[in-house]
Known about the structure:
The complex is a heterodimer. Chain A is of the alpha/beta class. Chain A has two domains: 23-255, Rossmann fold (3-Layer(aba) Sandwich); 270-356 and 437-450 and 457-517, Rossmann fold (3-Layer(aba) Sandwich). Chain A is 35% helix and 24% strand. In chain A, helix 5 (136-145) crosses helix 6, helix 14 (375-383) runs parallel beside helix 16 (421-435) and helix 16 runs parallel beside helix 17 (451-468). Chain B has a domain at 2-209. In chain B, helix 1 crosses helix 10, helix 3 runs antiparallel to helix 9 and helix 6 (127-150) packs antiparallel against helix 11. The complex binds adenosine-5'-diphosphate and magnesium ion. Adenosine-5'-diphosphate sits between chains A (33, 36, 38, 56, 58-64, 408, 418-420, 422) and B (296-297, 299).
Amino acid sequence: MSAFLSNKVFSNISKFSREVKPLVxxxxxxxxxxxxxxxxxxxxxxxxxxxxxxxxxxxxxKSTLVKILYxxxxxxxxxxxxxxxxxxxxxxxxxxxxxxxxxxxTPHLIDSLSVLENLIIGLREYGVFARVxxxxxxxxxxxxxxGIELDPRKPVATLSYTQKxxxxxxxxxxxxxxxxxVDEATTLLPSREKEKFYTLFRRFTEGGGSVVLITHKVVExxxxxxxxxxxxxxxxxxxxxxxxxxVEDVRKLMFGKTVTNNLQVRLKRTEHIDxxxxxxxxxxxxxxxxxGDYVVRGVSLSVRRGxxxxxAGIAGNGQEELVQAIxxxxxxxxxxxxxxxxxxxxxxxxLTRKLGLGxxxxxxxxxxxxIDNTIEENIAALLVRGKIIKWRxxxxxxxxxxxxxxxxxxxxxxxVKVLSGGNLMKVLVSRELAxxxxxxxxxxxxxxxxxxxxxxxxxxxxxxxxxxGVGVLLVSEDLDExxxxxxxILVINSGRIVGVFDANRxxxxxxxxxxxx
Amino acid sequence: xxxxxxxxxxxxATYYLVALGHGFFEKSGVLxxxxxxxFVLGATIAFALAAYTxxxxxxxxxxSIVCSLFGVFIAYVATKLPVSHGALGLSLMFLxxxxxxxxxxxxxxxxxxxxxxxxxxxxxxxxxxxxxxLASSILIGVVLHYVLDRTKLGAMIKASGEDPHVAEAxxxxxxxxxxxxxxxxxxxxGLGSAYFTLVWRSGWDPKIYLLGHGWIAFxxxxxxxxxxxxxxxxxxxxxxxxxxxxxxxxxxGLSTEIAKMLPFIVALAxxxxxxxxxxxxxxxxxxxxxxxxxxxxxxx
Lengths: 517, 300
Ligand SMILES: Nc1ncnc2c1ncn2[C@@H]1O[C@H](COP(=O)(O)OP(=O)(O)O)[C@@H](O)[C@H]1O
Ligand SMILES: [Mg+2]
């Protein structure tokens, strides 16, 4: 980093530096992985009482930075100063003992253990033979204080994603955290829940703690953070006070100028959809949760060639089950699904895949990829239909995808688990787009992506529809995304389709009303 | 009838303790393929120490200590180094077989030369002894169940077995936890194997390494999903089967070879049975069992 740049960086810290000492400082931190420099000479201060947003595109090094602070990674160079003392953070245990706690995007919780068990194993004040339920009262108390209801004796597996994230917050409070590292922990949450978390973070900082909030949503960061730090390709390229930060400037820091211009390009639309053949027809579909109530209640819809049908709705209104039934992952109780005219109702994934269905799942880590295998193998797994894999061709194809989608990976043969979350998503999206010949089912396809990558993916989806006449069923919690991509919009609420709109003539407010009604 | 049942006790105690120790250790995520070799070694060491000192309890304690040292070694190496748990376990298994011959043959010659009567160095199988044996084994099982189900240590062990990365992130010292599980687990394996030579068989035989009792204990633990209380059931069942192998064999008209396979067939059958019942989730193996653990590996 040039002297000029770093001067600019530090001169921007105004209201915090003069009055108070930082809780934690990074000095010249460098971390390399095979083939990438994840962090390059990064220096940053974290002050008490602030929410510091850490922004950067996918693969910029944000997670690496907080993992170093949490003792999951050791830096190659540089030092960490905690409460004025030079400290080598050796392990999460060590970090926790210094009051530094990480809340990650994919919950660091063991599903088969109870909430209490997950929590007690990090508490040093209890000996190994301490009874797990000794902490029950404290846990209930903290849960109550942040306004959530949950039975901490239950296994974590029974909790929703939001509840799991809240358990991580309870954990931080239980551990008496002073520095809370929030690594995209709010990204996957429905927006109403997100607000709750932001309120909690604010309360936390009012008590003198500090929050490092990792996100790639610029607007959100500007709204909730006191300061914004931007990483690009492992370098800290700016630290700005919220009062002085403008969305455009931050975007430019994150992506560079040329790329941001692309954000304005309008998406093409297919003409004459009405004449097109129906690729997907769903009739009166009922799906129940495992031994439970109906969650999809009589849904009928169709998707034509070249058409993008968007399903708008608040998470948990049956979208997941609807998508899984269409893809062939769950058997519907009643109703029928036809793909290219073939009845695929309850006949499994193999058939729908054979008929050219591409599927971008909501949580790629769970359904979409095999994380121990390489990028190449993950692509070959679905792309190759014969028994013999022509690795040379797969390799060429993979390299092309990596280039086109700007996946930050040293080469096609790295296991996908070493990719950053956004890059992993890109691998998956590129594979599914390559597979989709008749229908693409995309469930929150851009949620984990930075704006530029999200834009890229949306454009690819649109081009797939326009250029190749593939039908697209887009299920997304992001109403902007639905509005931008769709030709037709359906609103889902409590498992029912409660509204159908032409995307050219629709009022956003009307859809929002129906979503929450 | 009562006598028949009492006759099963040494067999049960051996199997139950070995299976308990094995399951406890594996809960922490270390695949324990060394079990049969170290069972044989433990049994041999117990015999050797008992014969030299003419005190079976020294044999029992010695075997527990030696085995728990191996437990420490396995836990440490399998977690700290990126080695295959399978390769490590099988190597140690053969090492166990080899060492037991190296140790056992001279001692067995010594016993022969001195014309030592087994009663001078083994545990007398009086009713009191057997009752104590049975009660203490069951008590150990209950204690292990309590530890796994109710305590912080149990949660640490289960967490290390499910996902060492997440466990570490939650504040668990995975190496230390697995070493503790290894010490306790292998101490019990040592104890059980000592009962084999000093109570059940009352003596040592160079063919001991061909008998596969360690593997039967492995199957017993697996069939019970490594749950201490359920293991009591499977251990009784297998103890009965093995003890009365001939009766079963004759009753079912099986050949000796098939009869020897019987415990394993039953293990497979009971595993399959459990997995189709709602017990499935409770019975599942630790998710990271046998996976090498590289600390800085995962991202996302
Ligand atoms: N454990 C690891 N092994 C190899 N590469 C890694 C590892 N962790 C991160 N990386 C690489 O370092 C870069 C930064 O990743 P990360 O910090 O996860 O980015 P993000 O800003 O999206 O959180 C990426 O190119 C990623 O692939
Ligand atoms: Mg990240």
